[in-house]
Design a protein that fits this description.
Jelly Rolls; five-stranded antiparallel beta sheet; three-stranded antiparallel beta sheet; 12 strands; 0% helix
Length: 124
């Protein structure tokens, strides 16, 4: 399965993000950290996640890795970017990111946000 991400658990996802079955698909069998699905930024630009009701939310953390690599394959960190939380257009927090073929956990951050920006580069 591949396609635009629907509203999921009360959150909306930008058009730069697709959802992919990374466990059951013979084409994209790259493994998810948990479950069967992963988000993919296969487009240029920042991926963003917002509450579907426009309410503020708390960022509890996420797992990320480069795309098109076997699960937990490691390798050099070749996607450098930023994970950012915004509220009313202002940046609340920002984390420098560095991704390779193994899942990296980015921990929860303090402060309520109304948008999560995923600027890991293309193909994460």
């Amino acid at each position: 399965m591949f396609g635009g991400m629907p509203i999921y658990n009360g959150f909306s996802f930008s058009t730069t993000l697709d959802w992919i079955d990374v466990e059951g698909s013979p084409s994209w069998n790259f493994g998810a950290h948990s479950g069967d699905f992963a988000l993919l930024n296969n487009s240029s630009g920042v991926g963003s996640i917002v509450n579907a009701t426009a309410a503020d939310f708390k960022f509890d953390g996420l797992w990320a890795k480069t795309w098109n690599t076997p699960k937990e394959s490691g390798g050099p960190d070749n996607l450098l970017g930023t994970l950012s939380g915004y509220n009313n257009g202002g940046q609340v927090w920002s984390i420098a990111t560095s991704l390779n073929g193994s899942y990296e956990f980015y921990v929860a951050q303090l402060g309520l946000i109304d948008e999560l920006g995923l600027d890991f580069g293309n193909h994460f």
